[in-house]
Each structure stands twice: as C-alpha cells, then as structure tokens.
Amino acid sequence: MHYKNFVNATYAPAGYLNDNSIEQLKADIEQVGRYIKIDKIYLETYRSDILVEREKMEAVKALFIKHGYQVSGGITTTVKQTLMGSMCFTDPENRKRLGEIAAYTAELFDEVMLDDFYFTNCRCGNCIKEKGNHDWAHFRLKLMNDISENVIIKNAKAANKKVKMIIKYPNWYDSYQACGYNLEDEPKMFDAVYAGTETRDPHFTHQNLPRYLSYFLPRLIERVKPGKNGGGWYDLFECSLEDYVQQAYLTMFAKCRENMMFCMPLLVNAPPYTAAVGAVYDEADLFMGEIGEPVGIACYKPYHSHGERRLYDFIGMLGIPLDPYPEYPAKARIVFLTADAAWDEEIIPKIKQSLLNGSKVFITSGLYEKLVGRGIEHIMHLEITNNKITTDTFTNSNFNQNNCGYIKAAGQITLPHVAYNENDLWVLSSALTPYASHPLLIRGAYGSGSLYVLTVPDAMPDLYKLPAETLTLLRRELDLPVTLESVARVGLFLYDNNTFILQSFLERPERVRVCINKHGAAIVPLLKSQVGKIRPPEKSRNIEGESVFDVYLMPGRYAAFRIEV
Ligand SMILES: [Zn+2]
C-alpha cells in the first residue's frame, strides 16, 4: 500500500483490456504512475457482450502484479442494445450466460466486484407476465435476490470457494428498489458492498447529485453492512477539475477503505485530473490517520424508500453533518427525518417514543404532509397548506428576545405556507412577505422532547439561498459540538475524537465562523500547509461555554482541525 490510510484503486473495463496490447498497457501503467500511486486494479472480464479471454487475462494479471498492483476481478452485467444495457434476468439464456461469467471470473480472481449496472429495467413480455399483479419494485427486488443468490454467488463460489464477492451500489439510491437493487437483502448475501460516490457536476447535469452524496451514500452503506463497505467509487465524467477533486475529498472524509478512481483509460487520457487527485491523496494521507470515526445528526433512510429524493444530501450541504441509518435511530438524542421516513409503517410510534425519551425530532414539511391521517396530528397539529409564497426576506424570533432583524436570502424562494395554532407552537424562523409571515422552522413540546417542523422549499436547492442567520439558527437547535455560522454550501464533517473538517463548495473565498461548544477551546489545524487562515473574530463575542473562531476558506478547499481544551 502506498498510503497509510486507504487503498487507492482503479478499474480496467473489458473493452480497454481487449483493445490494447500488453505493451500498450505497460506504457499506460508507466504514464499513470507519473501522476498518482495506485495500489490495486479491478480487471474486468465481461461488459456488454465483450469477454476477455483467459490467455489475455492471465497476461494482463501478470503485468499488473509485476508493477506492484493487487488484482481483483470485475463484471459489468450488461448486454448491447437495451436501455442502459440492462439485462433481462428472466431470460434463461441470460441467466445461464451470467452464471458462466461469474464462474469464469471467480476462477481467475479471489475477489470480484459487480459494477453498478447490476439492475433490471426490462419490461419484455416475459417480465410483464412474471411480475403479475405486484408492482415493478416488488417483482424486481425479488428477482434480483434470486439472481444474486442462485446465479452470481452460487456459480462464483462453486468455481472458487475462497472468492469474495462485492456488490457496488450506484449513486441513485432513492431509485434502487425500482430497478431491483435490494439494499436490505443483497448485502447479506455478498461478502462486501461498495458505494458509488460519483457526484460529478452537481450544477448542470440531468442527474440530481448534490455533492454531499459523495459522503452520505458510503456512510449509509457502511451502516447497512458495518465494517464491510469495501470503498467509494467516483469518476470524471462531466467533471471540472474542481468537481473531480471534491469527489475524492468526500470519499475520503467518509473513511472509505478503498478510493476507486474509475477507470484506468480515463486516468491515462486525463493527466491533469489524475495528477490533481495524486496530490490530494499525498496531502490527505498526512492527516487522515488523526481523524476518528464519522459522527453527526442521526437521520433515517428506510430500505426501499423514497420520499423527498436527495433531500438529505441538500441538508448536508447546509453545514449539517448527517449520520444515516437504514433502521430508525431509536437511541439518538436528535433525529432528522425527511418524507423518506413515511415508508416505515411504524414511524409515528417511533417518533413518539423518541420524544417521550426527551429527544429532539426534526421533520420536514414533506414528511408532515405524508403523515397526516396516520397520527402526526396527535403529536402536534399544523397544516401544510397548498398556498405557496415566494420571498427573499426572513427573520428569526427567539422567545423573549427581539427578532434578529430582517435578513435577505440570496434570491427568491418559494415555500408552502404552514398554518399553526399560535401559542401552542413556537415559530423560530419565518419567511416574510408584505403583511404576512410564514413559518420556516417551528417547534412544539411533546413529553420531555421537542418536535420541529422545517418547511422545505419547492425547489430543494433553494435551501442554499437561505440567509446565514437562518441556517445558523437551525444548526444551533441541533446541539452539535461544532456549529457553523455561515452561508450554505460549506460542509461540516465531524468525527468522534474531537476532530472536524470544513469543506467549501463555494466558488469564492469565504469567512466561516466556527463555534465550539466549550469554553477556552483552541482549534489546531491538522495540516501545517493548510491554506486558509484562522483568526479570532473581529468583534469579540461573549457566549458562555463557547469558543469562536473565524476560518478563511479558499474556494473549493478544505481545512481539518483538532479541538483542544
Ligand atoms: Zn425481460
């Protein structure tokens, strides 16, 4: 291993291996080696009707081993000429072929990963018939369980008892169930899992991929199969240099065991990208060993759920560190829930129990709407009306204190108007339109706990426009050891050993105020060469039990710290 804190891996697709001579592959290894140190490569035997024959693969394996690489196998379960190349898995011919490919690959390698085309979107006559009266998700989840157990794993293990099978989960986690990716059952069958951390260009692409996903998904996958998340996988499709590097940062911040740069031919063809990540890894390896285990606000993403798609990732972009669970985090003192949680039939009693235990439960307006008629009104009553308002003006109001003044968002935001019973509930933050106000964050007591409802804008990215003061109020209610006072798009990554990382997703330099919930604390940079200055705040501020610092972050840059008391 070239790095102390992670394995750096890449992947070689079957077509690339078939199209290039051993001499050319050797030249490619040498070229890439000028820019980055690679520990491991997944050598693909099959993709889209292209198979690498045994003799060629043995020569390729020997070449990479000679150059110091660990080698594993890869399979992409695609065929030509279907939408996304997805296979029809009810076709007996495909099942047979897939079993043969799994066995063949396991003969060659002791570890094999399935690329994330391992799903089905087939609606052929036979699939329609086998689906019967079930919905597509139900049919496909069951179908892919069968393929995993009886086709892939059975044949692979029969060919090589020692083989370790890895399933890679794609970046589109809200849609897994629709295409048969079974996050509940398949990780139990496979030896390890792997997470897609490809967020590419989050700004102007058709897929909705907030950058925080590059951290959130591997953390969720780690919780699904603790200790067995093999790694995080990103690529450079549609990426600027900055996009590419930020994917690398977040994959590392999630403490993935392997960081996978897909794929070898892309690394060969894009030296500046390869070199940039090479420099990032050299630098990060100097401090990643000092970082503990990731922690944050417990949030809940039930298996096979979708509600407010990607909302957790947008919340993560607000400087709110999230810790995702596939099961309800019953012990957490603070719980954050989006409409995804409505998937759980028992969610109302679970929320009640958390509140009775004295916890704070934050829910979104989208979740509240979905739980109307299911008992949420017995916890507290309000109405998410169909009336919409559009504004750029907000205010905060703490009980017994004046409001914080009238603060401007970075643009117009459209929100649902929430109606509530005054004095039964307290509004902490409001959106204002002329002669009217509209709750943005509302709180009510239940037992010894508090339920908060956060009004979510119609367009989730409008959360990024919220004023710093509004976001800071929300962050303060979360009782974190580190609270940011800043605009959105500055990430906070918290660890269990008094360390934390700030990551700017902004295009401009930014002063970020960092509040540590201890008196007399210092923050010490983990990197000597860290770009970005730390200063005491310009105006002194006396909040008891708190230490405050201004950190000047470069655009797109991170800064890592240890808190010392
Ligand atoms: Zn079919």
Folded structure, characterized:
This is Permease. There is one protein chain. The chain is an alpha/beta fold. It has three domains: 7-285, TIM Barrel (Alpha-Beta Barrel), CATH 3.20.20.80; 291-478, Class I glutamine amidotransferase (GATase) domain (Rossmann fold), CATH 3.40.50; 481-565. The protein is 29% helix and 29% strand. It has a nine-stranded mixed beta sheet with strand order 12-11-13-14-19-18-17-15-16. It binds zinc ion.
Layout of helices and strands, plus pairs?
Blueprint: E1 7-12, H1 14-19, H2 22-33, E2 40-47, E3 50-51, H3 54-66, E4 70-76, H4 92-108, E5 111-114, H5 125-131, H6 136-159, E6 164-169, H7 186-189, E7 192-196, H8 213-224, E8 229-235, H9 241-253, E9 258-262, H10 264-269, H11 271-284, E10 294-295, E11 297-300, H12 311-316, E12 322-325, E13 334-337, H13 347-356, E14 360-364, H14 365-371, H15 376-379, E15 382-396, E16 407-420, E17 426-433, E18 436-446, E19 449-454, H16 468-476, E20 482-485, E21 490-495, E22 499-504, E23 510-516, E24 522-525, E25 534-535, E26 547-553, E27 558-564
Helix pairs in contact: 2-3, 4-6, 9-11
Protein name: Permease
